[in-house]
Amino acid sequence: MAGRQLANKWLKTEALLSNADVAAHIPQTRLYGADSLRSMLHQFGMVVIKPLRGGGGYGVIKVTYAGGVYAFTYMSRRYSFGSFEAMYRALNRVKVGRKYMIQQGIHLARIAGRPIDYRVKVVKENGAWVYRSMVGRLARPGLFVTNLCKGGTMLSAREGLGRSLSRRASGHKRREMRSLTNTCVQILESRFPGIGQLGFDYGVDRSGKIWIFEVNTRPQ
């Protein structure tokens, strides 16, 4: 049985932020708006905006600010602007018509210049949570989204971590990802009784820190 589904990313993020250990692995996140976008861009230099509902990388846009230039990348196209206001107007024409959230941009570890992230899928069977898969998703050349439906390449988590960080770091990072997953499952199940499957999207930055990008109750 699939179990309870929660489409809203903000609700799941709020639940996980209630735990201090887990919160340290969640990029700063705010609801979409001009003031929040401007302040986060000036703080981080890069953010990602994504619809509160939906998956598959649909509607996800990378926004950057560097050297006085504002820019956003949607799919493989990059648009540059000399002012925040001009960029914001163009952004609102491109993004799909639904509510969005803004997430601190993370500089992911890469393989041959292509960013990689990870999907960990767990399901509840006979009253216990079991791991179904731990895989890496390597972005298609030229894209920043890693989704397989957008041309990403699937690797084992072991191979992805070994090639993007080091072979020695691979086992340690997989254990850390599992530990984080176990803690998150407990938090989410207590907050949202009836969930039966969860897909965690993790990123690992260039220094090896693990970040939780989002959690899906209907993982693909």
Task: Kindly describe this structure.
- With 220 residues, the chain is of the alpha+beta class.
- The protein contains six helices and twelve strands.
- Helix 5 crosses helix 6.
- It is globular.
- The mean pLDDT is 89.
- It comes from Paenibacillus rhizolycopersici.
- InterPro entries: YheC/D (IPR026838).
- This is YheC/YheD family protein.
List the main descriptive attributes of the protein structure presented here.
220 residues, alpha+beta, six-stranded antiparallel beta sheet, YheC/D, YheC/YheD family protein
- Radius of gyration, in Å, reads 17 Å
End-to-end CA span: 15 Å
Order of strands, main sheet, comes to: 1-6-2-3-4-5
Count of helix runs: 6
Give a short summary of the structure:
This protein is of the alpha+beta class.
Question: How are the SSEs ordered, and which strands pair?
Answer:
Blueprint: H1 9-17, H2 20-23, E1 29-31, H3 34-44, E2 46-51, E3 61-66, E4 69-74, E5 77-81, H4 84-94, E6 100-104, E7 110-111, E8 114-125, E9 128-138, E10 153-156, H5 157-164, H6 167-191, E11 197-204, E12 210-216
Antiparallel strand pairs: 1-6, 2-3, 2-6, 3-4, 4-5, 7-8, 8-9, 8-11, 9-10, 11-12
Helix pairs in contact: 5-6
